From TrEMBL:
GO terms for cellular component: cytoplasm. GO terms for biological process: methionine biosynthetic process. SUPFAM superfamilies: Periplasmic binding protein-like II, Winged helix' DNA-binding domain. This is HTH-type transcriptional regulator MetR. The keyword Cytoplasm applies. Transmembrane segments: none annotated. Residues 5-62 form the HTH lysR-type domain. The lineage of its organism: Bacteria, Pseudomonadati, Pseudomonadota, Betaproteobacteria, Burkholderiales. It comes from Pelistega europaea. The keyword Transit peptide does not apply.
Length: 307
């Protein structure tokens, strides 16, 4: 019989084994849950057998599923290595990938992604353009960077964007702050507070752009360059702040501050990878974007697939 197995099926099986749930596997692969479920159903219908037990948590593979998983574990690394080798033959194995970021907290996940990338592409010179960049796309256009991490899509000739992920922004305050008693903060809760933020333009702060300014709320501001300094100021009741959940989680676990949802519908922010259109098909660049997504969903809490 003709085979139905494709590389995407092998990757699906590996993700299911590594994450233990369909929902987590879909995030790892940057697919919707329905798309992943469709892949599984198509395999099961083709082989006329269930691949895993539906009610187990984490899921357990059936004997048939285990056999296909063994195949995936053997073949998937070989396929990925061959794809990289062929790309290096065709496009050249050396290159340069300079990264610009407009996100102060990007380094929490960017450095691990770079660590995964380096041994796969040892002759690609990987570097971060020094410091926070208020206009990273401008660096792309002037060829001073090759990839920019941005929080919004701004249509620009010669620039294309690849979605990375969305994440929750949470409000943080000291444990004994009055707002610690509220489970959900609304825009008006910020009105009489000192808001501690990074020193960036207002339009780059989603709390201001999406929540406070539309409600006519303009709180007193205090600026800090460093995330740890913001945490310390909040813990000492010098103000409140809004930061990505993954950034504040270690400090929540230590009891330094508390985190609260912002808005009845949780405030979420987005990140995209912007590249020059002429470079968008460069294999090592595409590979780096894939690694960012995979490492993000593997290591950071509270991420969602960004369409």
């Amino acid at each position: 019989m003709d085979t139905i197995l494709e590389v995407k099926h092998l990757r699906t099986l590996l993700a299911l084994a590594e994450t233990g749930t369909v929902s987590a596997a879909s995030q790892r692969l940057y697919l919707t849950q329905s798309a992943l479920s469709h892949q599984i159903r198509s395999l099961e219908e083709y082989f006329h057998v269930s691949l895993f037990e539906r009610k187990s948590n984490p899921l357990r593979f059936t004997p048939a599923g285990e056999r296909l998983l063994q195949l995936a574990q053997a073949l998937a690394p070989m396929i990925e290595e061959a794809q990289r080798d062929i790309a290096q033959i065709v496009q050249g194995e050396a290159g340069e990938l300079r990264i610009a970021v407009e996100c102060h907290t990007c380094f929490d996940w960017l450095m691990p992604a770079m660590d995964v990338f380096r041994p796969l592409w040892p002759k690609v010179e990987l570097d971060i353009v020094s410091g926070f960049q208020a206009d990273p796309v401008g660096l792309l256009l002037t060829h001073r960077a090759d990839l920019a991490i941005v929080s919004a899509i701004e249509e620009q000739a010669g620039i294309v964007h690849a979605p990375l992920f969305s994440y929750e922004m949470v409000g943080i305050c000291a444990k004994d702050h009055p707002l610690a008693q509220k489970a959900i903060w609304q825009a008006e809760d910020f009105a009489q507070e000192t808001l501690i933020t990074y020193p960036v333009p207002d339009e780059m702060l989603d709390l201001l752009r999406k929540v406070l300014f539309p409600a006519g709320v303009h709180p007193e501001r205090r600026l800090s360059e460093l995330t740890i300094a913001i945490i310390q100021l909040v813990a000492s009741r010098r103000g409140i702040a809004a930061l990505p959940y993954w950034t504040v989680m270690p400090y929540l676990e230590k009891g330094y501050v508390v985190a609260r949802q912002i808005g009845d519908k949780p405030l979420r922010s987005e990140l995209y990878a912007a590249v020059r259109e002429s470079q968008q098909n460069t294999t090592f660049l595409q590979d780096f974007i894939r690694i960012i997504r995979e490492q993000g969903f593997k290591n950071l809490p509270g991420l969602s697939v960004l369409e």
